[in-house]
Amino acid sequence: MVHRIIRILMVWTLGILLVSCGSSEPASALSNGPKTLGEAMKISSEISSYEFDSHYFVYVFSYEGNPTRVYGKLNADLFEKLDQEMMNGADTAKLADVLRDVKIEKMENLNEKAPSQAELDAYKGKNGQSLLDAGFSADGYAFNEDGSQKFFFTKDEFEYEVQFEETAEIPEDAYDSGYEAIVRPLTVKRIERTGLSSMAASIDRIEK
User: Fold this and answer.
1) Given 64, 70, 126, 184, which residue has the most CB atoms within 10 angstroms?
2) CA distance 149 to 167
3) How far apart are the first and last CA of the chain?
4) CA-CA distance, 65 to 18, in Å (whole number)?
5) Mapping DSSP to helix (H, G, I), strand (E, B) and coil, where does residue 196 land?
6) What mean pLDDT is predicted for residues 200-208?
């Protein structure tokens, strides 16, 4: 049984964010990719998530085996068209058509923003408070098939699974009160990156 707190931070969102295990290509390798948002949205991808407001459209997808983020600038006319499409069912192909001429301002390989496993391993032996101090948020927990306990964390664009040395008692109101107090004294045994968080497509995470 899995217990999670899911924070919806996006203006509009489509799809489930999954991390790619492909090779991490340098940013220069992405220079020959799509030139417009419409082109990017027409590329077949197991990742599909976006957010937009009246100024920017951010799209996250898989490109050459890497989770990739692109964004472009919107004007009032484009925003109105996108808003209308959302009310009509948010068909991705139609959104791509609206964005067919919107220039990609930047294309980012999100694997390059992720901490290395060596950096994550530096938390081993430290307590959960060290994770919270570093900006991680505790979102929920689950039990593995072998009965061991794991906790779900997020930080910036990524999701993580953390196993502690101790097995914590989970109060009945943990879903409402949060998991921070539970994980603070626990000792980190293992931490690994497992996927992309909802912040991957957040307008707050791009350079304006």
Assistant:
1) 70
2) 6
3) 41
4) 12
5) strand
6) 94
